[in-house]
């Protein structure tokens, strides 16, 4: 494995955004972009993984640790760390990833779903890379305006509840946010947080 990785050209990725998937009910589209370029990787992920990513991106504190938080705590206790995530393969429409971990001077490579790998990279504050062949095969060239328009279009499909939030005061929104987090309803919490941010602009 190390020999293969050493000869692999990899590209650094940023998290561009996340939206509801129009193609798969109950799923989300996570969009990763090549740093400094226009190539984007749209990755379909599940609701739980989308929440785990959104919680960390928006600095929400869950009432109880999620699985990814538990993984981080477990690794910390064992003095292990996640140094990077590599999306190393794309087959039959599915992205595959590797977790590159360090423990007591040893480098470990662990297979992972890409959605879990991204959620963990946020918790360990480590970079995300993709094999160049994966970007060449699955990457879509889009500029930021196109992505923003697509995300906004997707979000409009799910805007009924959000319109209710627009009628609420800041105090009521903050109370609703607290309640949503306590009830572990992170999808609603994310929508409420978006409305709070909009009101503060």
Number of strands: 8
Question: How many separate domains?
Answer: 2
> What's the helical proportion of residues?
40-55%
CATH superfamily of the largest domain: Bifunctional nuclease domain
* The top level CATH class name of the largest domain: Alpha Beta
Biggest sheet features: 8 strands, mixed
Shape: globular
Features:
about 200 residues; alpha+beta; Bifunctional nuclease domain; 9 helices; 8 strands; about 30% strand; globular
Structural write-up:
The structure is a single chain. With 201 residues, the chain is α+β, with helices and mostly antiparallel strands. α3 (67-77) packs across α4 (114-124) and α8 runs antiparallel to α9 (186-200). A hairpin with a 2-residue loop joins β4 and β5. The chain has helices at 2-6, 47-57, 67-77, 114-124, 132-138, 144-156, 160-165, 170-182, 186-200; strands at 10-20, 28-34, 39-45, 80-91, 94-103, 106-113, 128-131, 140-141. It has two domains: 2-143, Bifunctional nuclease domain (Roll); 159-201. Helix content is 46%, strand content 30%. The protein is built from nine helices and eight strands.
């Amino acid at each position: 494995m190390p020999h293969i990785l050493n000869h692999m050209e990899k590209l650094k990725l940023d998290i561009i955004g996340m939206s509801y998937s129009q193609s798969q009910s109950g799923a989300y589209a996570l969009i990763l972009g090549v740093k400094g370029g226009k190539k984007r990787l749209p990755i379909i992920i599940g609701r739980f993984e989308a929440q785990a990513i959104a919680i960390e991106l928006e600095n929400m504190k869950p009432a109880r640790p999620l699985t990814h938080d538990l993984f981080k705590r477990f690794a910390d206790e064992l003095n292990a760390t996640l140094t990077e995530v590599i999306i190393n393969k794309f087959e039959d429409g599915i992205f595959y990833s590797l977790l590159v971990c360090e423990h007591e001077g040893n480098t470990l490579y662990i297979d992972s779903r890409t959605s879990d790998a991204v959620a963990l990279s946020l918790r360990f504050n480590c970079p995300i890379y993709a094999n160049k062949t994966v970007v060449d095969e699955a990457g879509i060239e889009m500029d930021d305006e196109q992505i923003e328009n697509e995300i906004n279009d997707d979000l409009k499909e799910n805007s009924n509840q959000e319109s209710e939030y627009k009628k609420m005061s800041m105090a009521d929104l903050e109370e609703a946010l607290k309640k949503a987090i306590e009830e572990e309803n992170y999808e609603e919490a994310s929508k409420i947080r978006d409305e709070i941010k909009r009101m503060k602009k």
